[in-house]
Amino acid sequence: MLAKTYPYYLANRAEQPNTDLAVLDKYSGDIATRVALADANAVETAIAAALAAEAPMRAMPPFARQKVLQHCVARFRERHDELAMALCVEAGKPIKDAEGEVTRLVDTFEVAAEEALRIDGEIVNLEISERAKGYRGFIQRVPIGACSFITPFNFPLNLVAHKVAPAIAAGCPFVLKPAEKTPVGALIIGEVLAETGLPPGAFSVLPCTVETAAPLVADDRMKLLSFTGGQVGWTLKAQAGRKKVVLELGGNAAAIVDADQRERLDHVIERLIFGSYYQSGQSCIKVQRIYVHASLYDEVRRRFVEATKQLKAGDPKQRDVFLGPLIDESAAKRLESWIGEARDAGAKVLCGGGRKGNMLEATVLENVPRDAKINALEAFGPVTLLAKFADFDEAIAAVNDSDFGLQAGVFTNDLTHAMRAWDGIVAGGVIVNDVPSFRVDNMPYGGVKLSGLGREGIRYAIEDMTERRLMVMRGA
């Protein structure tokens, strides 16, 4: 179980000035632990320390950065069960999902340890005209400098890892603000980092309020802001000044089931159920909209609804529970109201829709109006919409009829349809023969439109956290 209290980490050091932040067990509602809450002075101290650490971090050779990351991999494996239970309690994440996230935490740091040795430069031939004869260009990639990281509640380990691990690999000091509702996983990562030989001030992990964290966004001395969360990210971008900004701001992911999938419906239904309801739908790439060819629609609807009704909800600590609580009651009430709005506008509730506290039943809707909130916005919960299509291009247009564009899934055996989807769907990624919820931690991940800008995935994050420095040499 969780410790009674957790310190924050300020300039590599554990500090416990208070226990002001209560972290709830999201299923029982009881206080699970208390965490130190950072004030404005702590944030300013952390920024100053990160700036002072820029030069020593830049001077760390790649093998030394790799050694730090490898230490983290080993310690996370040793503390696997502790990390999983912390996730289960503070996020309400079913224990199997929590264990999977710990595995991804390890994977992400392991990939970063490898990429730390691959930050290479290049030689540029400058002799493109007579005036440049005898000149040669050399490019190296150098750390961008101190970074600000802000992470959400739904993946308290892996979304932290996707910022912290590439920063260490690139040689960038950082200040991290984890979500107030789920800070424990990030603090355990901080505890492990404190065991390493990172230079003083290289990292701070500071649970704090949004207002207290404002300098992480606005201070022009910080060189990059990486934010994962909701649409408030666009406001943060406007406040970020001169620094580089990377945003992952959610989605409204769709999946297409093509006409040729009749023989594979067992697999298709299994994956659609997973994509729709894993970790209670609290994922940016959870399946929110499903478009099924008209020839298969009735069968897919029947089987999908039957499978949805079979999902077990309850205490996420029990291994047979698939649906746990939403992060808080307000999130469940929001979805309950969106379902009611859609029903009042003519949508049909095929199953679910009930709520008790922060537990919302797995819900399936059809005939949902285009402008209903549950169709137009990000649900971020266990609600899925079904619709039919007659023509594959019609399905692509339906997927694109959204202000979001993170990932989409296409179940098809037709290579031309797969290529047409890849070319035509406006999203950061198209997953063929699986749900849009698929992610491996070395792939480029991010969206377009309201889903954000920039890409995560270790190598791609390192690109954002480094910059090219040119040297031109004239021959004798």
List keywords for this structure.
25 strands; six-stranded mixed beta sheet; Aldehyde Dehydrogenase, Chain A, domain 2; alpha/beta; 476 residues; 16 helices
Task: Tell me what you see in this structure.
This protein is an alpha/beta fold and 476 residues long. It has two domains: 5-249 and 451-472, Aldehyde Dehydrogenase, Chain A, domain 1, CATH 3.40.605.10; 253-440, 3-Layer(aba) Sandwich (Aldehyde Dehydrogenase, Chain A, domain 2). Helices cover 37% and strands 22% of the residues. It has a seven-stranded mixed sheet with strand order 15-18-19-14-13-21-22, sandwiched between helices. It has a six-stranded mixed sheet with strand order 10-9-8-11-12-24, sandwiched between helices. β13, α10 and β14 (287-293) form a beta-alpha-beta unit. α3 runs antiparallel to α5 (95-115), α3 runs antiparallel to α6 (158-170) and α14 packs parallel to α15.
Largest sheet descriptor: 7 strands, mixed
Ends: how far apart?
68 Å
Strand order of the largest sheet: 15-18-19-14-13-21-22
| Secondary structure tally, helices | 16
What is the arithmetic mean of pLDDT? 97
Number of domains: 2
CATH architecture descriptor name of the largest domain: 3-Layer(aba) Sandwich
Percentage of residues assigned to helices: 25-40%
Query: Class by helix and strand content?
Result: alpha/beta
CATH class of the largest domain: Alpha Beta
Based on DSSP secondary structure assignment, what is the total number of beta strands? 25
Tell me the CATH superfamily of the largest domain.
Aldehyde Dehydrogenase, Chain A, domain 1
Gross morphology:
globular
Could you tell me the radius of gyration in angstroms? 23 Å
CATH topology of the largest domain: Aldehyde Dehydrogenase, Chain A, domain 1
Strand proportion, as a percent range, falls in 15-25%
The parts where pLDDT drops under 50 for at least 5 residues are: none
